[in-house]
Design a protein that fits this description.
The chain has 310 residues and is an alpha/beta fold. 35% of the residues lie in helices and 17% in strands. The chain is globular.
């Protein structure tokens, strides 16, 4: 079965998913989306952020070798890695987690959704679920989160992989809209199916990947009742501002930079910047790919990751 094959002759509405996930998961139609959705787990992570444990959603598959930990992008979820996880988990213990304030992870009241708390939550998830050095993979904003985590907890990261990563850009342009009533307008704008489909199409070079299933995967986490509040709070915090060159130069871990050669979201200039600034790094272009090679060229992306992991 192809990685993104739609299931024909199957009543997808009858497929069971974990009870803590939105009922809209039954709308998924592609095999990798359905398979990953069925394996999503939830665990309570204790952190110094709040007195109550944070219910955290993640996927873990495979065994053996150095664990791989995958970090998703802005306003996304672990479903972003639906095509990559099956390929990596054939050879490695592979885990993907929904960051604090994103995906299907809980958004408790009273928490400040900013990069410091995201990093703290991620560390305690790592400590609880993995607790050994990992190969840390970050895509888009997840790349910035991975860089931040690596700089703060270098003992936790064996190698670093950046996929079309943020890190050189400043705060989100949405910041200027994050005050009432424009903050609600901004999130309603992002909630629009037409807007999300346009963003999805822009992320791929091959627009046939922007299927209805892809749009559903990119939108299911919007069902979380606190999605809007958390997104507004994170954006108002400044998100992940640009790293100083001295910070990126301090990364000691071997680093692989994977970049779609036709990225229309972040462009392609930053790929070479990362290679020039991070000391022990190499850059590999993913040909005929846009901003999400882990979805558009999952086989090629997995091959490069696995070779780098050896």
């Amino acid at each position: 079965m192809a990685l993104n094959e739609s299931l024909s002759g199957v009543d997808v509405s009858a497929i069971d998913y974990p009870a803590f996930l939105p009922a809209a998961f039954t709308q998924l139609t592609e095999s990798t989306s359905i398979a990953l959705g069925q394996t999503i787990q939830q665990t309570a992570i204790n952190t110094p952020i709040t007195t109550e444990p944070i219910l955290t959603t993640y996927v873990r598959q495979g065994s053996g070798n150095i664990p791989i930990l995958l970090i998703h992008g802005f306003d996304s979820s672990i479903l972003e890695f639906r095509r990559l996880i099956p390929l990596l988990s054939e050879h490695h213990d592979t885990c993907a987690v929904d960051l604090l304030g994103f995906g299907f992870t809980a958004r408790p009241a009273g928490i400040t959704f900013n990069k410091v708390n995201i990093k703290t939550h991620l560390y305690h998830f790592w400590q609880t679920q993995i607790n050994q050095p990992v190969i840390l993979v970050g895509a888009s904003m997840g790349g910035a989160a991975a860089i931040d985590f690596t700089l703060t907890y270098p003992q936790s990261v064996e190698k670093l992989i950046l996929i079309d990563s943020a890190g050189f850009l400043g705060s989100s342009p949405l910041v200027k809209f994050m005050f009432p009533p424009l903050d609600a307008w901004a999130t309603n704008f992002l909630r629009s199916p037409n807007i999300r489909q346009n963003i999805s199409r822009a992320a791929y070079k091959d627009k046939t990947f922007a299927t209805l299933d892809a749009q559903i995967c990119a939108s299911l986490h919007l069902e979380h009742p606190e999605w809007s509040k958390a997104l507004i709070a994170f954006t108002k915090s400044g998100g992940y501002s640009a790293f100083k060159l001295s910070e990126m130069a301090a990364i000691q871990q071997p680093t692989l930079i994977l970049w779609g050669d036709d990225d229309r979201i972040l462009g392609t200039k930053d790929a070479k910047k990362f290679q020039q600034v991070i000391p022990n790094s190499q850059l590999i272009w993913i040909e005929n790919s846009g901003h999400v090679p882990h979805l558009e060229k999952s086989q090629v992306t997995a091959k490069h990751i696995l070779e780098f992991c050896k």
